[in-house]
Amino acid sequence: MHDDELLTVPDVMERLKLGRSTVYDLIRSRRLPSITIGRCRRIPARAVREYITHELEAAA
């Protein structure tokens, strides 16, 4: 996974093993940054890694 790679919501769902509404909740709450290109929502791969790191640190 490259730092500049942009993921779709289904990509993030698969990587985090979460449902669509949960991913959109994370985006809505700004816990998972995203951008909109036209009508398409994209999440930077780096943001997904940072989210996982943050959650792991919070759980420790």
Automatic annotation (TrEMBL):
Entry keywords, A to Z: DNA-binding
Statement: the UniProt record of this protein carries the keyword DNA-binding: yes
Tagged with keyword DNA-binding: yes
Domain Helix-turn-helix residue range list: 6-53
GO molecular function terms attached to this record: DNA binding
InterPro entries found in the cross-reference section: HTH_17, SinI_DNA-bd
Pfam families: HTH_17 (PF12728)
Protein's recorded name: DNA-binding protein
